[in-house]
Design brief:
- It is a single chain.
- By secondary structure, this protein is an alpha+beta fold.
- 47% of the residues lie in helices and 16% in strands.
């Protein structure tokens, strides 16, 4: 058996080597399909299939509080104790709070993301330091630090003597007790230092007993044999028991620090008054793997389906090539049959050839996939989660090998069966006009299938392209061009008083406003489109008794007077802020139309007042002095929400703020140096956080959409290109096989345009069938794209019509080129041959 296989391989290699043109085209066609599938599978393997880098990660869950309208945020410290009591469900429940620190003493001052963790976190994750040790329960209130492997390498040069060394975080000394393994990331890839939670609690003792302070990201490990359904039910009962036993405060005026849709423990905790509020509706339990993946599962599976269609089209093209080649080899097959070769033996030999082609295409495809992946991840590094784990590893290579073998059999089986069909006498005849009729019909069927699949991809890509164009044309309500922003977080130990903080920011802002390249400069506690939002929840019935809900969520930002000028946001009614709106003056605010419409529908909001309560009772009345249009501050594709702006100068503390600059020369990134100089002039020990332009923020927000749209468009164009090649090849093959017929027609008076029309009508019938089937298939398939579209319906008639017409035009072009050659047939040659 092995000898026969080796004989077949040697014969297949010699046969393919004798036809280098055919081999090149077949390998390239299949390599495109196999390479695209390999690239997408590597992404799916790294993002969806590979377990998280924690032993037994499928048993790890994240627990968050849920609130009004499904808002998710952290759990409180008392909640953590209650969750730990569910020992029948969990073997351990740990928590982390992310926060920023200024790291000094290790080169230039820099900002690092840190995680304050409970001592049992690393036991729950089943991960332990590479060097040193973790935190013991007895050390929870000791200033210790664990370093990430990356920080150890970049800032401390892999110093093995790092253990026991002190580092300075926010001006306080922490002793390094360990270094985590390379690749360890928790709760996200930005965290570089871990400190004991108890050390944080010693600085904020009030949060240990306040159930309304949601600042922890809880992670738990399920007990053996416990199902998610049981855990969800038990946690739901716990939430109901807590709500029944602890009425808490009304929640009016509670401030929540929200990043995206939920707070993972970031931001300063805000006391709420002691108990669970009306915002707290329960707990949400989610597999930690699903949290890490986010919402990319459906787009990746859609892309996998798309490349699957591309591979099917490539297989159809390969089958057409083999069918055409079988015509030239029909005498060879007949002779081998005459010498005693059975049909099974011929099929095996031909399948060996097609599989050898597919394996060669697989090698080329892996090379294409590797370079393509590097290019895509370089252009869109934040489009997918877990990008460091996307690689052409052994699993991906095994997938490519299996795919190549299956592809070789798939596109080679039908041509092999047809080529080995009995009919020795007919095949040995020099003239067998009916010998290729069946092949032409089969080729026509394959072409119609290619058109069907290509149209489905083209419609999907067209919908995403139209959606992205709509998103790009959205007016956010402010000018995103030429704006550079930097986040500054003051070191608490150096700037503990509000007067010190105000002096620093005033000096920095004055320096920037005097810079010749700065047209305008302002301060803001939150930056539009940055994903960082401060939310205020209050009872709107104190302003509007007939308001239908007990809670209203406002997006809040503290700004300097020039904020609206910097972002070119027009004041529609009233005024903005002035220097007179300072501490001690009556509190004022500017709101957007969404806030006005909900609180004072049909009325002028200027001069109206609202009171936002605090943890110690009602706050001072706030007078509305200005009205702006609705902004898309959260994201371009999110509906505008109620917003309120207050003067930063009326806040008692401003420890962290964004400074935003509008460039006067159209090149905002040139102002990076100006920001660094202004900060270091005010304080050489002060670090700088993010520095980003608004256009870069938009790029980050739309990265996933651009990634999906670009890939699906590439796959659709690849499918159209392959379909074009298939149509061209079938028409060219028909011209070659019908040379005598076409010559006779021309000898009998047919004009060249008649011959071209004949061939194009035949091709158009095949294409029309494919387009019709493709439109029907697209009507069903495009519903899966609904979540990825923006202001475009999944059955958008314009997209369907435009893509169908485009594909028909491409098909006619692919037919016209070889059909035009048919008009050059010499009728006398054809008649003489007859």
């Amino acid at each position: 058996m092995m000898d026969t296989l080796l004989q077949d391989l040697r014969y297949a290699a010699r046969t393919l080597a004798k036809s280098p043109g055919f081999t090149f085209v077949a390998v390239l066609t299949l390599a495109l399909g196999i390479g695209a599938n390999t690239a997408i599978f590597s992404a799916i393997n790294g993002v969806l299939l590979r377990p998280l880098p924690y032993p037994g990660s499928d048993r790890l869950v994240q627990i968050m509080s849920t609130g009004f309208r499904g808002v998710r945020f952290g759990v409180s410290f008392p909640d953590l104790h209650d969750l730990r009591a569910l020992s029948q469900d969990f073997t351990g429940v740990a928590a982390v709070r992310t926060q920023r620190h200024n790291l000094t003493g290790a080169g230039d001052p820099r900002e690092v993301q840190a995680g304050a963790v409970t001592a049992d976190l690393f036991d729950v994750l089943h991960v332990h330091p590479e060097l040193g040790h973790g935190f013991a329960a007895a050390e929870e209130r000791t200033p210790l630090a664990l370093l990430s492997h990356g920080l150890w390498v970049t800032s401390f040069g892999r110093d093995p003597g790092i253990l026991g060394r002190s580092i300075s975080l926010d001006g306080r000394s922490f002793t390094v007790v360990g270094v985590m393994p390379a690749g360890f990331q928790f709760p996200n890839e930005d965290v570089q230092v871990w400190t004991p939670m108890g050390e944080f609690l010693s600085q904020n003792p009030q949060v240990e007993t306040d159930r309304g302070v949601h600042f922890l990201n809880a992670v738990a490990r399920l007990a053996p044999g416990v199902s998610m359904e049981r855990v969800v039910g038990d946690v739901k009962l716990l939430a109901a028991r807590l709500s029944a036993s602890d009425s808490g405060s009304s929640g009016a005026g509670r401030q929540l620090s929200v990043t995206g849709q939920a707070s993972p423990g970031g931001g300063a905790p805000a006391p709420s008054g002691g108990g669970r509020s009306m915002l707290d509706t329960g707990f949400d339990v989610t597999l930690l793997r699903d949290v890490a993946i986010g919402d990319v599962r459906r787009p990746l599976l859609i892309l996998l389906g798309a490349v699957g269609l591309v591979l099917l089209i490539a297989c159809a093209n390969g089958a057409n090539l083999l069918l055409a080649r079988a015509t030239a080899r029909r005498r060879e097959m007949a002779v081998r049959q005459a010498l005693g070769a059975g049909r099974a033996r011929l099929v095996r030999q031909l399948l060996t050839e097609s599989t050898l082609l597919a394996l060669a295409a697989g090698i080329v495809g892996v090379v294409l996939a590797g370079s393509g992946l590097q290019a895509l991840l370089a252009v869109w590094p934040h489009a997918l989660p877990r990008t460091p784990e996307i690689a052409l590893d052994a699993q991906v290579l095994a997938f490519s090998l299996g795919l190549a073998v299956v592809t070789g059999v798939a596109f080679g089986l039908l041509p092999a069966w047809r080529a080995s069909a009995p009919g020795i006498e007919q095949s040995l005849r020099e003239d067998a006009p009916g010998a290729t009729g069946g092949r032409r019909r089969l080729q026509g069927t394959l072409v119609a299938g290619e058109v069907t699949l290509a149209l489905v991809l083209l419609v999907g890509a067209g919908l995403l392209v139209r959606s992205f164009i709509r998103l790009s044309n959205v007016n956010p309500g402010f000018d995103t061009r030429d704006v550079l922003a930097a986040r500054i977080r003051l070191t608490p130990a150096r700037y503990s008083a509000g007067a010190q903080q105000k002096l620093f920011f005033d000096n920095m802002l004055a320096s920037l406003q005097a810079h010749p390249g700065v047209q305008s400069a302002s301060l803001a506690s939150t930056l539009p489109l940055s994903g960082n939002m401060f939310m205020i929840a209050f009872d709107p019935r104190s302003v509007r008794p007939d308001y239908p809900e007990p809670v209203m969520i406002l997006r809040s930002s503290d700004i300097s007077p020039d904020y609206f000028t910097t972002f070119r946001i027009p004041i529609r009614r009233g005024r903005g802020f002035t220097a007179q709106d300072r501490a001690g003056a009556p509190r004022v605010a500017v709101i957007n139309r969404a806030t006005a419409d909900q609180l004072w529908p049909g009325q002028d909001p200027i001069g109206r007042q609202l009171t936002i309560g605090g943890p110690r009772g009602p706050g001072a009345p706030i007078t509305i002095v200005g009205l702006i249009d609705n902004l898309r501050s959260a994201s371009l594709d999110a509906r505008p929400q109620p917003e309120i702006y207050s003067p930063a100068s009326q806040q008692s503390e401003t420890r962290e703020i964004w400074v935003a600059l509008r460039s006067g020369n159209g090149r905002p990134l040139q102002l990076v140096g100006a920001i660094r100089d202004a900060v270091h002039q005010a304080d050489p020990e002060q670090s700088i956080g993010d520095i980003v332009s608004l256009e870069q923020l938009i790029g980050r927000q739309t990265a996933a959409r651009r990634f999906n749209t670009t890939l699906l468009t590439i796959f659709a164009l690849l499918a159209v290109g392959l379909a074009l090649v298939g149509i061209y090849g079938v028409t060219a093959y028909a011209v070659t096989q019908r040379t005598r017929e076409l010559g006779i027609r021309m000898a009998l008076g047919a004009r060249g345009v008649d011959v071209v029309g004949l061939l194009m009508r035949e091709s158009l019938r095949r294409v029309a069938v494919g387009v019709g089937l493709g439109l029907l298939a697209a009507l069903g398939v495009t519903r899966a794209l609904s979540a990825m579209l923006f202001e475009v319906a999944p059955r958008d008639a314009v997209t369907f019509a435009a893509t169908a017409l485009l594909l028909i035009a491409v098909a006619l072009l692919a037919t016209w080129l070889p059909a035009r050659r048919a008009t050059k047939v010499d009728p006398m040659v054809a008649l003489r041959y007859e």
